[in-house]
Amino acid sequence: MKRYSSYFLIFGLLVCLLGCQRDDICPTSTNVTPLLIIRFYDNESPDDPVPPQNLSIRELTEENDSLRWVSYVDNNGNKDSIFRKAVDSISIPLRTDSNLTRFEFVLNTVIDSEGNISENSNRDTITFSYDRQLEYLNRACAYRTRFVNLKVNQNREIPDSLNWVKNIQVEENIVEDENQAHVSIFL
Amino acid sequence: MKIKLMCRYFFSILFLLITTVAFAQRGSDTITYKDKYGLRIGIDLSKPIRSLVDDDYRGIELVGDYRVTENFYAAAELGNEKLTYDGDNISTFSTGSYIKLGADYNAYENWQDMQNMIFVGARYGFSTFSQTLNSYTIYTPTNYYGDNFVEENTKTSGLNASWLELVAGIKVELFNNLFLSANVQLKRRISQKTPDGFDNLTIPGFGRTYDQSDFGAGYGYSISYMIPIFKKDRKPSVKELEKTVN
Question: What phi and psi values does residue A116 have, to the nearest 5 degrees?
């Protein structure tokens, strides 16, 4: 009798161990929906990375005029938003519920006393359009989106000197990971 | 019609039972015991109870075994289940039927006239089912746009899975020929057909699956009735012989 009960204990323990296995938390290492990586270069010498000064980015929607700067969570789990940045490489999220995301890229961002973007800031509008592909990851993270046929379009102001973004080039028209820059912007 | 047939069957079995009992009484002996051999059929109690308590679950399972030799029983389970997986980011359910075929080995040595079991067994399980994807989120490293929660009801039919199962449990005779049984099951999936670009998150008969492994676990709690078909002499064990000598 004693012999059998020890077998039962081992068996029960095995079953319990299996039941307690956690697979419902999405690991941070998972390749979920990628951010779009943009690198900035000098338009005069296109091989030289150059950080735009006090760059801020927000999504432009028809009704929304609030100052909600683009935010994301970096690889270390820290939340960061693109407000008055001076880096030569940025990551921004694309909409996963629409084939189009429109951003306002604000150079030399200054916020006036009323909380609006000052007239001294240079605002350029850039539209990203793409097709979306849904990919199943696992039960914890559910699905991710893969962006294909990426196209970039800039609403150019007249005269042309008003645009701080001189030229845009798509480097990778498939956005499926964050290993390299997808878009180059020349200023 | 079916019920009529079943009744007739039941009464003929009953008749058989009465006659065997009569024969058994005539040939009683002090040293050799008679063991009952027969077909034990029953129902899993845990599944209907869970169906009542848990809105996301519906299930029924018929259980049966047939005593082949002194310690070996051919065993089978037949069931139908609706199993839900409701995670943080995804919600699915599967419905379907399954069958499990295999054998149990009784490792318990009974006293005379007792038919209790402590058993281990093995099963081959096969399930055919459909899975419905209720809703999911598209996971992004930002909540800048808010959660992209997609509700849809995509049903994929014609899915299947097969697995091997180890069972361990006890069967206790409550009243004459009426048994209560509890068991735990450890399963390993052999094959499965999943929806295109997706996974089977639950499999009727197998239970919930795990992303990183083919293993699964389950339990059963059933009540069953043994229809005795014939009796056979049991050789007394060494222990029992010693007792009679003393």
Answer: -105, 165
How does residue B180 score in pLDDT terms, banded at 50, 70 and 90?
very high
Q: Do A33 and B138 touch (CB under 8 A)?
A: yes
User: Which residues in chain A are closer than 8 Å to B168, comparing Cβ atoms?
Assistant: 7-8, 11
Answer whether A102 touches B (CB < 8 Å). Answer: no
pTM of the predicted structure, to 2 decimals: 0.79
Would you say B44 and B61 are in contact if contact means Cβ atoms under 8 Å apart?
Answer: yes
Sequence-distant (≥ 6) Cβ neighbours of residue B19 within 8 angstroms: none
What's the gap in Å between the CA of A172 and the closest CA on chain B?
20
The answer to whether B210 faces chain A, any CB pair under 8 Å, is yes
Going by C-alpha positions, the residue among B160, B219, B134 that lies closest to residue B184 is B219
Can you spell out the DSSP letters for B155-179? EEEEEEEEEEEEEEEEEEEEETTEE
Q: Which residue of B has its CA nearest to A138?
A: B211
Nearest residue on chain A to B219, alpha-carbon basis: A15
By the 8 A CB rule, do B79 and B62 touch?
A: yes
CB contact under 8 A, A71 and B90: no
The whole-number pLDDT of residue A33 equals: 94
* Tally of CA atoms within 13 A in the half-sphere of B161 that contains its CB: 31
CA atoms within 13 A on the CB side of B160: 8
Q: Give the confidence band of A29 by pLDDT, cuts at 50, 70, 90.
A: confident
The pLDDT of residue B246 is 56
Report the pLDDT averaged over residues A81-110.
92
For residue A18, give the nearest of B88, B211, B217 by CB distance. B217
Rounded to an integer, what distance in angstroms lies between the CA atom of residue B246 and that of residue B78?
A: 48
Which residue in the set A23, A97, A136 is minimally distant from B212, CB to CB? Answer: A23
Question: Residue B245: in which H helix or E strand, if any?
Answer: helix B238-245
Look at B142 and A30 and tell me if their CB atoms are within 8 Å: no
φ, ψ (nearest 5 deg) of residue B229: -110, -45
* The token pair that represents B182 in the structure block: 């509890």
